[in-house]
Backbone:
């Protein structure tokens, strides 16, 4: 019972499927007659787009961590916090749980995503010993979880709107907020550009049921 | 195996898994049951009884709640006699000045405009179908748009952000929830339930058939 049952794919049947509305058309059809999405049996440019967004996302991720995210002014003292610095500050005051949420959402998830997307893209090219089921599961997790990194940007937005108490306390956003938001958006686009059908293709040809 | 005859079947009767390309004969399962891809376990078809009406009602509720949540304050802060209230729009537009203005627009889109647009599109596309009328013009394209917007609708993430913000400034000042916060919390639930009820294949199928019927009725 190892591995999934072998199923005929649309491509092997000489058909092309729409990934948006799941309608099937004869091979060579250029756009889905139902939802209008351009049809490709396997997106040849998928990996190039994945890597392009991936690099853009990574380039934004560095300034997002180096520059301050928040500029807090309480009475006459001003302090600037980076993402990690802010989480450490929170932990110092005893709110370990929230510090953990922030560390997971803004450090662990983005880095995990960069690694996961890169590994998936490389494994599609080079092949991998990991079962396609596990790789597909990983892809689903990346797709689902990516949006949640936006939480830190929203927290900054909420605090900036809310904490405007004249000289008693005020909070302003730092340049890292923009860089971080861009990084999250770029990695979401990178994950969306990936064609998960590529994960399963090599599996099929390994079975010996090759299709020229 | 069914391999040979499935390849010869009319493509309109088939369904391919959008995640792994496995090919199946599309058959409507029982209400409440789900057709799942045997290879990658993606849910392909999952119809529910009276789903159309439920989804429209939920979309209408989302519409009202988003509009309400925009105008009422959602958090109130006080420290040493200074008091401030923030509405959703304040939060969305808080990044002012220079390049951060782009961020303001993006945040507004993610937490207000996209959820709003999806609710309006859902009602526009599905309401005629539920009342046995032909789908409105452009229904297929607009439903496609609504689907494309799905990952960019981040209302539920914003709600969790409120909770984090609350803890973050707890030592700085006193915070309390305004009415819009509870509207937003309800909104999160409604969006999740709506997503559960929506069987995308059924919608595509119904829209396609409606469109075909409409074309037949209108002679050139």
Residues:
């Amino acid at each position: 019972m190892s591995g999934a049952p072998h199923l005929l794919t649309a491509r092997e049947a000489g058909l092309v499927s729409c990934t948006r509305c799941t309608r099937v058309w004869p091979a060579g059809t250029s756009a889905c007659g139902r939802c209008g999405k351009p049809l490709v049996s396997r997106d040849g440019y998928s990996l190039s787009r994945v890597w392009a967004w991936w690099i853009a996302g990574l380039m934004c991720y560095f300034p997002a961590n180096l520059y301050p995210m928040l500029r807090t002014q309480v009475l006459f003292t001003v302090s600037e916090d980076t993402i990690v610095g802010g989480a450490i500050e929170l932990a110092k005051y005893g709110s370990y749980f929230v510090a953990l949420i922030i560390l997971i959402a803004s450090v662990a998830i983005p880095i995990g995503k960069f690694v996961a997307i890169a590994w998936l893209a490389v494994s599609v090219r080079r092949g991998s010993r990991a079962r396609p089921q596990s790789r597909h599961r990983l892809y689903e997790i990346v797709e689902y979880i990516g949006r949640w990194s936006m939480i830190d940007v929203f927290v900054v937005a909420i605090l900036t709107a809310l904490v405007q108490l004249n000289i008693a306390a005020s909070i302003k956003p730092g340049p890292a907020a923009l860089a971080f938001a861009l990084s999250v958006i770029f990695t979401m686009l990178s994950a969306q550009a990936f064609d998960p059908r590529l994960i399963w293709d090599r599996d099929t040809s390994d079975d010996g049921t090759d299709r020229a | 195996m069914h391999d040979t005859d499935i390849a010869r079947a009319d493509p309109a009767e088939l369904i391919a898994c959008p995640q792994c390309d496995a090919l199946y004969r599309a058959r409507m399962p029982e209400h409440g049951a789900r057709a799942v891809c045997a290879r990658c376990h993606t849910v392909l078809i999952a119809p529910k009884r009276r789903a159309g009406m439920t989804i429209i009602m939920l979309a209408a509720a989302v519409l009202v709640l988003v509009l309400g949540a925009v105008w009422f304050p959602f958090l109130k802060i006080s420290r040493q006699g200074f008091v401030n209230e923030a509405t959703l729009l304040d939060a969305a537009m808080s990044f002012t000045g220079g390049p951060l203005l782009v961020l303001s627009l993006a945040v507004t889109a993610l937490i207000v405009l996209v959820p709003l647009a999806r609710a309006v599109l859902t009602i526009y596309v599905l309401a005629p179908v539920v009342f046995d009328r032909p789908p409105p013009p452009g229904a297929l394209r607009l439903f496609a748009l609504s689907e494309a917007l799905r990952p960019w609708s981040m209302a539920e993430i914003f709600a969790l952000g409120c909770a984090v913000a609350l803890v973050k400034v707890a030592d700085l000042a006193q915070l309390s929830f305004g009415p819009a916060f509870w509207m937003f919390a309800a909104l999160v639930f409604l969006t999740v339930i709506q997503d559960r009820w929506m069987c995308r294949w059924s919608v595509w199928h119904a829209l396609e058939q409606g469109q075909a019927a409409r074309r037949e009725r209108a002679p050139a």
